[in-house]
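writing this on my phone so excuse typos. first protein, seq and then structure
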Amino acid sequence: MVMRYAVLMGAAAAAIFGAINLSANESNMLLVDAGQGGPSADLPAWVLGMVGAVLALSFVRTVAFGLPSMMGSWAIANKTWLFAGAGMAVYAVFYLM
């Protein structure tokens, strides 16, 4: 959780730093072609990569902490079918031996 907020703060700081750097004093940065000077040409790719990483970490966290409780409630609701399936699996193993 701390890492997710650290990445978000880094992205926010990079956006603020970029907005300050693209002021009227440094407007020549806007006039050059990509890759010829000024900010890096692959900066949008890095920003999108950071956003994707934050989304992936958030999804993994949701699955890691939400899935056990969801599976527990599902198992309680379907206990009869789970025991029947386990019994059939044990019977199938003994039958195939």
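second protein below, same order as before
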Amino acid sequence: MPENENRTIEVEEQQEDLGRIEISPEVIEVIASLAAVEIVGVSDLHGNFASGMVEKLSGRNYRKGVKVDLTDDGITIDVQLTMNYGVSIPDVAEKVQDNIVQTLKRMTALDVHEINIHVVGVRFDHKEKTGSEID
């Protein structure tokens, strides 16, 4: 069992008399993955074989391609994604990082220590030729 599985992140309390707010790493993974695919130039998130099987068996897996580690320094997020052919990879990767930080800050008030972008593929969109286009 991964060491982060049962850990939660405690959000700084705004009012002490109302209780605690805890956010699981899985929620952060979902938010980060949705924020990543919002960026133009990102084709898809890339998961491993196990996450691919889970997605096929259980439907959509919004955490695919995102891993959250809770370290002593803070939250570290690793994102594996496929880019569209022809985009500037550094520009799109920076936009993904910025969007994840802004979205997590807005939705959870959490600060992220590090977001690592791993480009694991490039997607080429080929138009299929119809019978009239084939010589």
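Residues 50 and 56 are 10 Å apart (CA to CA). thats all i got for now
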